[in-house]
Structure formats: structure tokens, C-alpha cells
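Researcher: Batch entry, complex prediction.
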Amino acid sequence: MSELLAHRSKSNMHNSSFDLTLDQITKIEGAAGLDVSVRGGKVVDLRLKLSEYKRFYTQGVRGKSVPAVPQLLARICGTCSNAHILCSIEACEKALGIVPSAQTMIMRRLAINGLMIRDHGLHLYVFALPDLLGKDSILELDENNPKEKQFLEDTFCVKKAGNMLSVAFGGRSVHAPYLTIGGFLKFPSADDLTGCKNFLIKARPAAQRLVKLFSDSQFKFYDQTNFVGLIGENRYDFLEGKIKTSKDGVIEEANFRQHLEHQVIPYSQASGYKFKRETYMVGALARVNLAKEKLNENTIKNVGYVLSRFPSTNVFDNNLAQAIEILHCIDDSLLLLGSNQFNPEKPASTQKKDGVGVGVIEAPRGTLYHMLEIKDNKVARAEIIVPTGQNQISIEKNLVRLVEENIDLDKEQLSHEIEKFVRAYDPCISCATHFLKINFH
Amino acid sequence: MPDTPKKLRVGWFSFTCCEDSTIIFTELLNDYFFRWKNLLDIRYAKALRTKNILDQLDVAFVEGAISSQNQAEKLKKIRGLSTKLVAIGSCAVSGFPSAQRNLFDQATLSEIKPILERFSYTPKVLKVDEVVKVDVYVAGCPMDEKKFLEVLDTLLVEFNVIVG
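Model: C-alpha cells for the complex:
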């Protein structure tokens, strides 16, 4: 634990009183900290502080020409930049009435599969795996130990397979330059496609081992919350579908925003959201809970043994759900690469210069929403709601219970439990602090 | 060449940015992990470990722009501990796009003013060399990975970790 400050006045668990500050939660994307005050065995104050400094993208995008918008909004986040690109492309296309071709939609599906494999791979292998192995860091794994060597090889093989897919169908795994409004600027070569197929086939057994590893995990924290996600009609889909919830049924994409209630959190640089006034959870766990029967049939064949666990209310099963999604994205990509050719075509375009469009997609960490109002081919107004903003209030609420249930642990163990739990949500603080809402009192 | 194998003592630090270069660095590990494990002593990298040590470094890699006095102080501390400092990626090298608020008009600035005041932001977002001396620049959004690899190899030679 770095830079940890803790004071306890009593060690008896039921009468414990102490203040604990975690200046920096590590192995997550971006900067976050936590302040907890415990008096008489109860948490009297707990503040999850998203401490990244804002970069004001919702203001910065105003006045920008439409073609430049997706690449600017990509810079909200390094790790899920390609999700921001795809979501703002959808918002621009909806606003201006542009209909992408069937080939474009297949190529975008491959691009987001690449993102899911790479991004979940980073989270599971680099951030979460050390917790399972009782290590501080992947850097501590010993390549002379056959089991640890296998973990290291799997890590880099799976991440590389996702990276290659992102490069073939986006030009880069971060801020992909080939994705554009209406279609693609460049198309994969035959060599790119062969390389992707070979690496995906190589990564598949590693992904199966990853599912097994996280299905054996004994970490548990149950939250009877509402699970929310964009769910495809006929298949497991990250780009098209309707918003489904485990408690309320189905909502159209364009109406999603009306159900969300913005919450100001004065000590955090990010805003939180509630769904119909209640906390909720988005992300891989929500998606697998809501649509496990729609996963690729080869995935179901190989990891069907864990699917009976879902719907699961164990927050740590978000890790398992991500591992299942890696396998699904490998299988879905192999299916698409085996049955399609990718021929150069011009991006679809329009003469329309005004409109309001909403993009809703599933980013790796959950439902991502971009609303763009366009006037004379320039952005007049933007609103962006990111997954971590939606999970933030749940994380904080659940941390109160987690601290109270583990109050007898020493400070280092308690801090580790807190970090491990926050990591299970795979929060992305860069995303959560991109924008501004002014409602301070 | 030194008698005992030496590793390059490095730290990776992120300030105001989207951390895209951190992601590129973690992707480079796919191909370079086993090589770098023998050559780099990664003492500080929040994305890779919990037990980070901020002490004497051969090289500090700094990503992101500077938005607050706290960040400026931390950067100065890092500079004081590092023999060489490398600015990584567009926000560290040029300030942008994280510095976009420097170009906002008065109306937009007054809109964001409550946040700037509440969390003690500096009036302008600064690039890294406006706060400390920078020895090497790796530009790009995200960083140009070929340039990063070249710079790293040069530093490994310079600090006698490998033979040039």
C-alpha cells in the first residue's frame, strides 16, 4: 500500500474508531483515492474521491466540425478510446441521418471485439490477477516457475490478440485512426486478417484458462442491485440493441437519459448517476446476467459449466464475466473473419447539417452514452455519460458495508480488501472526470 | 561495463491526461516484457503495482499536463529525484488536448470557474517543461511507440545497462 495513513484509537472490532486515507488506489485506470472515518465500529463517513483533473471535453467539443468530433472525444480516455469513437460516431450518424453499410457494422463489431479483448485482458491479467495470486504486481511473477510463466505468456498472448484486431480494424488500439463517420478510412490487408486469425486461435486456450481461474476465485461480495446494459436482439452485441434492466424491462436507446438522475458528489471530480433514483451496476457482469444465452455457441460449449452461476449478484463475478466476454469476442471474431471479405468502400455521407443524435454502446466497463446536438455541421451541445459515473454511487455505498464487515483487519489488510473490491468494478477514472456539471451548494 | 548487472531505475508518472501512453506502454509489454524484466527496475508505476517507491531514479517518464499546484509540486519532487526526465505524449509535450481550457472564451471559463476554484486548479494548464527541465521528448497522441523504444534503448546505453 503506497502512501497510506491510518490511525486507530481502539483495536476492539465493535468499538473501533479510526480514520483511513488511501491517497491512491492502484492498478485501476486513472487516479482515485478514499477517505473513511469509523466511529464505534460504524462507518460515519466514506468518500471515494475521483481525483483526476478535469479536461472539460463537453465544453471543448463545442464549435468543433463534425468530422473532427469522434477523434477529439476519444481523448477522454486512453484505454477505452475506441469505445468513445464508436459511440460519438453513432451520435453523429443518428443526428445527420447517415446509415452505415452492413460491412461497416461488421467491421465495427470486430473493432469493438478487439477493444474488449485487450481492455478486459489488461484489467484481468495486469490489475486483478496479482490479487488472486497474492502478489503485488505482475512484475513479481517468476518466469522460471512453470505455472507463473504460463500466466505471463497468456497475459501477453491474449492482450496481443486484441491489440492486433484493433490495429487491423482501427489502425491502432488507442485513438483508432481508421474509424470514421459513415464507415472506414482504411481496410485490413490479407496479411492483417491472417495474422489476426492465427493469434485469436492461439489466444483461445489462454482465455479458457482465464475463465477457469476466475471461476475458482473465492472472493465474494453480494449486491442485490439493478443490472443495466444495452442488449442485442438476436446476439450478444456491444453496439446495437435496447437497454435492458434486471428490474424494469426494456428501454429504447434514445430514452435512456430520461431514466438517469444526475448526482453531484462535492468531494469528487466526477458526477454520479442513479437509475430511477436507485443505484445500479453496468459492465460485463450486467451484460452476462442479462444476455448469457446470447453468447457465441462455441463459448457456451466450452464454458457452459460456469454460466449457471449467472445471473450473479457477487460483484467479484464481474471479473469472471469479463473473462467469459474475452472468449466470446475471440469466438465471434473468428466467426466473422471466417465468413466475410472486407472490400474498400467510401464512407456513407449526407447533405444534412443539423440534428440531435444519441449514441449508446457497451464500452468494456458498461453502457456509454453520447448526445450531440449539431448545428450547421458544428457541435452546439454535448452530453456524455460514462460507465464509471454510473457505478460510482454503488461502489461507495458497498464500500461502507465492506469496511464494516472487515473492521477487525489491520490497516494494510483492510486497505488491500478495499482496493481489491474497487478493482472488481474496473473503474475508469479518466472517463469519469472528463466533464463538468455545476450544481454546487 | 560494470562488474555486476545493472538495471535502469525508472518511474512512470501520469498527470492530467487520458493515460493513452500508459496503455501503449502496457501493450509494448506484450513483446518486450521478458527483455525489460532484466533491464528495468520499475520502481514506480501506479498501473502495474501497489507498492510503489518514490526514490532516486535514473529516468522518470512523465505523461500528462499540469493542472494544479499539487501536481506541479509532485512533478518538481520527481525531477529532483531523477537524473533524466522524459516527457511522454502530447499532453506532457505540448499541453494539448488537456490544456484546451486555456483557449476557452470568457463565457465558457465562467461556466467552469466553480470547479477550478473548488479543486484549486492553476489558471492555465501547463506543459511539463513549463514546470521543470525536460531532457527528452516523446511526442504523439498516444506517444509514438517507435520513438519511445529508440529513446529507451539510448538511455539503456547511456546509463551503462547495455552496450551500445
